[in-house]
Design goal:
With about 450 residues, the chain is an alpha/beta fold. It is built from 16 helices and 25 strands. The strands form 6 sheets. An 8-stranded parallel beta sheet has the order 1-10-8-6-2-3-4-5. Pfam families: AcetylCoA_hyd_C (PF13336), AcetylCoA_hydro (PF02550).
């Protein structure tokens, strides 16, 4: 006869207001990531504003509102932090209500184990099963290591959370929980879909010849992965696999087209592996109770030596700009934080090390400011910009004008290649800038 855990559940059940009473001034509180945001607990904690001081909260890729940040512009009571900005958290940063934590994602668990204090963790989970387990759902990539290192664990049961099968670390048992909170939640909000642009489509068309049947894909966030999903779904490619930090609707496109089978993977064969999922209601429905996928902590998903074991591993990420030396800025616009380091460097290293592996960083060659003026994303040299990927680790770079391989290339080869995929309107000026820096050999052969 199975043990009944309902008595222990009821003993730990309390209101959000009762649960947040454990938070003290000066505490570090973690909200974990994305759909793990504890909506009811956040609201209850914000109501304690005037009696608490210097409570520091961490989150990541969360949709708004975050009540503790919105209720205290003075930041005397609550200070909010993120280690990867959602569109909402980016706006908080712009308002001075959020501070960015630089983090390479495969080190996420180690940061929490060795360096970070977690006095209280508050995390949304799916309802408890008959064995006494709560599922971290699409938050599995980061939730487990944070919870394991917390002094006090509060779970908020969200009736809408999908249950996700995992490799490990996808659940927490009721015996490991200090407080349980229930309450009505709004249906999960569908994240705004970034429609692929014509430039995105051209970039993907340039990449497509480099991809072979049986490749395993890691796709970043934004319009580029959606373009990859749509165009790869329309291609002749077959038996693609998934091993990705972020699972988005791009993989759902591939699955519906019969392209995503995971049959050719050299590890986790037959399973699409991911850490966090963000997307549509249909995406969450596909992932729910699906034995064809497995969620793992990022310490596994993003670890370069794990990625390197996957034959024909292909990483496709985006960036903001690149300079003529091959340095890549992917997370900020100047000093303005717009996203995060995430797993770009993890997958650059891992995919480059895999047999048949390739790592692409993609960008449109230009952007327009609010006045409509056109600017190049290929710059002469960064000056104060935040570097995400060092020039020594960058592999393929792609724009709508082509693809270049940066591995093992000298400074003049890099400059020549980058100028060849820059927008034609800016190439002559970039050649002059390369000449000034003595990284150009062909000025007399133009």
């Amino acid at each position: 006869m199975l043990k009944d855990f309902t008595t222990e559940y009821r003993q730990k059940l309390c209101t959000p207001e009762e649960a947040v009473e454990v938070v003290k001034s000066g505490d570090w509180v973690d909200y974990t990531s994305s759909l793990g945001k504890p909506v009811l607990l956040d609201r209850a904690l914000a109501k304690r504003r005037d009696e608490l001081f210097d409570v520091k909260i961490r989150g990541n890729l969360m949709e708004g509102p975050i009540e503790v940040a919105e209720c205290d512009e003075s930041q005397e009571h609550f200070v909010y932090h993120t280690w990867h900005c959602s569109a909402y958290e980016r706006k908080l940063c712009d308002r001075g209500l959020c501070y960015y934590i630089p983090m390479v994602f495969h080190n996420n668990a180690a940061y929490y184990k060795y360096f970070l204090n977690v006095n209280v963790v508050m995390v949304s989970v799916s309802p408890m099963d008959k064995h006494g387990y709560f599922n971290y759902s699409v938050n599995t990539g980061v939730a487990g290591p944070i919870v394991q290192n917390a002094d006090i664990v509060i779970v908020e049961v969200n009736e809408h959370m999908p249950k996700i099968h995992g490799g490990y670390g996808e659940c927490i048992h009721v015996s490991e929980v200090d407080y349980i909170v229930e309450g009505r939640h709004e249906p999960i909000t569908t994240v705004r879909r970034y429609a692929p642009t014509e430039t995105d489509r051209k970039i993907v068309q340039n990449i497509l010849p480099y991809i072979c049947d049986g490749s395993t894909l890691q796709l970043g966030i934004g319009s580029m992965p959606n373009a990859v999903g749509e165009l790869f779904a329309e291609s002749d490619l077959k038996d693609l696999g998934m091993h990705t930090e972020l699972c988005s609707d791009a993989y759902l496109h591939l699955y519906k087209a019969g392209k995503l089978t995971n049959k050719k993977k050299t590890i986790d064969k037959g399973k699409g592996v991911f850490g966090v999922a963000i997307g549509s209601a249909e995406l969450y429905e596909w992932l729910d109770d699906n034995h064809g996928v497995a969620a793992y902590p990022l310490e596994y998903v993003n670890r370069p030596d794990v990625i390197a074991q996957i034959d024909n591993m292909v990483s496709i990420n985006s960036c903001v700009s690149v300079d003529l030396y091959g340095q890549v800025s992917s997370e900020s616009f100047g000093a303005r934080q717009i996203s995060g380091t995430g797993g770009q460097l993890d997958f650059l290293i891992g995919a480059s090390s895999a047999r048949g592996g390739k790592a692409f960083i993609c960008m449109g060659s230009t952007y327009k400011d609010k006045s409509g003026q056109l600017f190049s994303r290929v710059l002469p040299q960064f000056n104060g910009d935040i570097i995400t990927s060092p020039r020594s680790q960058v592999y393929f770079l792609a724009t709508e004008y082509g693809v270049i391989n940066m591995e093992g290339r000298s400074t003049w080869e890099r400059a020549e290649g980058l100028i060849s995929i820059a927008h034609p309107d800016f190439r002559d000026e970039l050649i002059k800038e390369a000449e000034k820096r003595k990284i150009w050999r062909r000025s007399n052969k133009r």
